[in-house]
Recover the amino acids of this structure.
């Protein structure tokens, strides 16, 4: 069992930056690949970024590539999402997720989810 708690969301102007953090409980954090997803009002949840168990490989949605960076610290059971050059269309609830069964780019590939943190980007 893994519990995930996101933090770091807030209100920021377009062009600004935020850093989201996801703290994981449990001693098996390094057994999971991690991902960030987001859900805007009236839209389906969508993939944002993912990182492998060791942190040696990452993958991003085209919409955030070059602006967002995912990283992890297995010693601290933490995964981060650095978001730069934020746009109003980045406004959403951001979710951290942990998975182990494959399919890192889809919801179905994740076993555990946090409750989310709100990010609002004003124009």
């Amino acid at each position: 069992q893994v519990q995930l708690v996101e933090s770091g969301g807030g209100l920021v102007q377009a062009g600004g930056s935020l850093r989201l953090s996801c703290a994981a409980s449990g001693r098996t954090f390094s057994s999971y690949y991690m991902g960030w997803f987001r859900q805007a009002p009236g839209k389906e949840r969508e993939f944002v970024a993912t990182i492998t168990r060791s942190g040696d490989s990452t993958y991003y949605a085209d919409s955030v590539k070059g602006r967002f960076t995912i990283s992890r610290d297995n010693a601290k059971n933490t995964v981060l999402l650095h978001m730069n050059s934020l746009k109003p269309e980045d406004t959403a609830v951001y979710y951290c997720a942990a998975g182990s069964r494959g399919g890192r780019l889809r919801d179905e590939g994740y076993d555990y989810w946090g409750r989310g943190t709100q990010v609002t980007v004003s124009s």
Remarks:
- The CA atoms of residues 18 and 109 lie 26 Å apart.
